[in-house]
Amino acid sequence: MAVSSRKAVIVYDFLRGRQNKTVVKELCVASAIASDKFRFKPPYKMADHGCIENGIIWADGHSEYKELHTVLTEAVAGFAHLHAYGISKCTFLSVLTGRPIHNLEDVNCPPPDSFNHEHWCTLPCHRFPKYSCVIKTAHSL
Question: In the beta sheet, which residues pair with residue 81?
Answer without folding.
Answer: 7
